[in-house]
């Protein structure tokens, strides 16, 4: 039924298929495994830190919502770069793809340094402004956790950028292996920090810093491997190309604003949850990891769409796949609809249900469900309209 609502089934001959079902699965499953690992480690992290006390769980939960805003920025930059690199591969303009890869790494690193510096300087002011009514122990845990995790932003940004480059080449296994290693280091470090060293919040934050640095180093070295169709040279990184950066940011900025607003809304919702006491903050933090399971497959398909659409965009047989080729350029609509759904629907309904109707954290959760429903409906109508077919990126 859903298939008929979205689009009637169309058959493509094997001769016209650029990505066979087998090749698509080879592209999808490493990203799926990677996302499952991230999700499971996130749940395990929450369980481990719970042994450090309710205040530690609450502090980590509150700070992660702030961190996620800026992680979205890094992911948006990586996605913007992946779109450009994928399409240059599709056009067989590999030199421009290599230059774009270097520019992506450079701009990701620079922006992460700027964001990290601002957060380090203003961390206490920011946390007290957002969560000033929380208990003293929760605030101290939040400040400690934010200070350490912000130091990992440059490594995280570089890791995201390098992973996007490999996904653009349809090489997703290396990102899966590195993600597995990163999560093993993180989880092992958490267990040592919390159970053996009794380091509390520091025992959770420091392993995150170490694991992200290791992952960034491995992925960056791999990007210099010359047998890849797209590889990076130092001159590509230490060179400012205004045109390429403009193209990357054209995709990245609307995505970052939309995703950042969504995460900012979660911070506002957490500020509301903070009014209900430490136990509800902790319960909300644990439940967020479970909610992430519902969006797991959509998180996987996003990078896959970027790679596939980019590779086939300029192929001679693209007329057979006209229903999806220029979708990546329709960024303004998703930005505006995202702002409406986040600010008007999610935040407003959270205030009404959570505070006015006195439903507490359950009301905040219902506001998320309402937001998801509105987003699905609006995006489905946009897809059916076909207006997204008129956009181009390069």
Automatic annotation (TrEMBL):
InterPro entries found in the cross-reference section: MATE_fam, YsiQ
Keyword Membrane set for record: yes
Superkingdom of this protein's organism: Eukaryota
GO molecular function annotation: antiporter activity; xenobiotic transmembrane transporter activity
Spans traversing the lipid bilayer: 27-49, 69-90, 102-122, 142-162, 174-197, 203-225, 295-314, 335-356
Transferase listed as a keyword: no
Alphabetically ordered keywords of this record: Membrane, Transmembrane, Transmembrane helix
GO CC, one annotated term: membrane
Assigned protein family: Belongs to the multi antimicrobial extrusion (MATE) (TC 2.A.66.1) family.
Protein name per UniProt: Mate-domain-containing protein
Organism (species): Neocallimastix californiae
Phylogenetic classification of the source organism: Eukaryota, Fungi, Fungi incertae sedis, Chytridiomycota, Chytridiomycota incertae sedis
